[in-house]
Amino acid sequence: MKLNSLRDLYVTELKDLYNGEQLILKALPKMMENASSSDLRNAFQEHLGQTRQQVERLEKIFQQLDESPKGQKCKGLEGIIDEWEDIMDKDAPPAVRDAALISSAQRVEHYEIAGYGTVRTYARRLGFEDQAQLLNETLQEEGATDRKLTDLAESYINEEAKTAR
């Protein structure tokens, strides 16, 4: 797709996010399996449900734009998920593994926060206020997930990882 306008860029970025969400839908169950902390598993489970809703929001936006959500590969999240899989292949105590899961998950969240913040701004500039509202909803969820992961890390997981052997 040629990028002749802000709308073209907006659609391209939305496709990137859509593909990224598909990758996350596949990765979260694996992350839940690898988590030893029930709090962390629950956080991933909750975010899996949110991610499904986020995909639905994106599909609604694509429908409004009369565009297909397919056709863009999210290389950024693909790379973050590949790095996470490499870490999970290493032998580590459960608390260290949980700390690594949080690190990887927060990298995903930060990528998404940047992406959703950008497309929300594009939507507003293009006069798609209803789409901007949907994107802002997702942006708020991503931020809340990031804060929840930080709270888990700082409340006990990093401390347990520090003393793990």
- Quickly give the structural class: mainly alpha
Multimeric state = single chain
CATH-defined topology: Ferritin
CATH architecture annotation name: Up-down Bundle
Q: Return the average pLDDT rounded to an integer.
A: 96
- The CATH class name reads Mainly Alpha
SSE run: HHHHH
Alpha-carbon distance between the termini?
A: 51 Å
> What is the count of structural domains?
1
What share of the residues does DSSP label as strand, in percent? under 5%
Shape, please? elongated
C-alpha Rg (nearest Å): 17 Å
Poorly predicted parts: none
Described by strand count, sense and barrel closure, the largest sheet is:
none
Give the total of beta strands: 0
Number of helices: 5
CATH superfamily: Ferritin, core subunit, four-helix bundle
Helix content: over 70%
Properties at a glance:
Ferritin, 165 residues, elongated
